[in-house]
Amino acid sequence: MSIFDTAETASSSATLTVDLAALVANWRALGARAGTEASAVVKANAYGIGIEPAATALAAAGCTSFFVAHLSEGIRVRAVAPDATVYVLNGLLPGTCGSYAQHGLSPVLGSHEELLEWAAFRQTGANVRPAALHVDTAMNRLGLWKGEGLTLARERSGVISAADIGLVMSHFASSEDEADPANARQIEAFAEVTAALPGIPASLKNSSGHFLKGCPSYQLTRPGYALYGGNPTPGLPNPMQPVIGLTAPILQLREVEGGTQVGYNGRWTAKGRRKLATICLGYADGYPRNASGTGTSTGGSALVGGVLCPFVGTVSMDLIIVDVSDAPIAALQRGELVTLIGGRLDLETVGTSAKTIGYEILTSLGRRYARRYIGL
Ligand SMILES: *Cc1c(COP(=O)(O)O)cnc(C)c1O
């Protein structure tokens, strides 16, 4: 039992199992691959697995830098990792400098205005940790545009030194696609930025960046998805260890005749006599409704006694119906567990079957599961 386990028992709901030893092993493997320090990106409740258990395990393993998206997430990391550097990627909303100071958090500054506000706050004598500077080299999302970054960097005693920048970073737009020429352009643009800011540690690699040829590691990397077992090299074997598993119990079994319609609006019709199982999990648990199996579209599937069985009908709020006709008889009992994520059903497979990506499956993991933290 871990202190982070939820009270709900496995018999009353689906169960999410999180292997914290695998999480730590993935973090170590990425750092070793980069040959430099790896931070941990734990935004969005550590991609759904739980920010407190994830940050606690990683800090105990020696991780000293964390990235989150929101100030509120930074405060949660600070509570379990009192000494770590905690960067807040979404930067400085007006008037929030005081909260950064109070919790010892570091904003990732991404505009001239944010730099000025932070520098002015520092000049009041506030006790703050160094901030990071985000330079946008492709995304047009957050960050100073490269030209502006270079101009500010060249003003020796300007706002960048007044803001006390401890890290300069940029973010890849398509690092999971090795063949995209945008990667080389971003690597080159970021090299220009770092050359203009000598002596300031830099960070470029996200998960997939660790596997891009010709990408320098700089002083810090920022893996997220791969820490949680996501495949940073889509289309190639997954180099990471799986971290999460999701199971749900069978609530009811039935046999239906050919021509029987199943689920809301009768979106699936049995072509012959079929065995169906209704399982305890639905879109309210974060399993996308887009994984519905209809006559025209195959959706998600479950492993039942090791056999892949398709969803039939629409995914409903609390329930999914699975065609278990091919599953071994021994696995077909009320209360038996089926696997929704794990083994052959990895995050990428589940994402594709729901017409999305593994990242969205992971970060949508529901609040209603019983959660078991194992491995540490
Ligand atoms: C989310 C995020 C990361 C982590 O990306 P992954 O692809 O999950 O490894 C790194 N840097 C920034 C700026 C991010 O927003």
UniProtKB/TrEMBL annotation:
Residues 243-374 form the Alanine racemase C-terminal domain. Its EC number is 5.1.1.1. InterPro entries: Ala_racemase, Ala_racemase/Decarboxylase_C, Ala_racemase_C, Ala_racemase_N, Ala_racemase_pyridoxalP-BS, PLP-binding_barrel. The keyword Isomerase applies. Pathway: Amino-acid biosynthesis; D-alanine biosynthesis; D-alanine from L-alanine: step 1/1. Keywords: Isomerase, Pyridoxal phosphate. The active site is at residues 43, 264. Signal peptide: none annotated. GO terms for molecular function: alanine racemase activity; pyridoxal phosphate binding. Coiled coil: none annotated. Substrate binds at residues 141, 317. Its cofactor is pyridoxal 5'-phosphate. Catalyzes the interconversion of L-alanine and D-alanine. May also act on other amino acids. This is Alanine racemase.
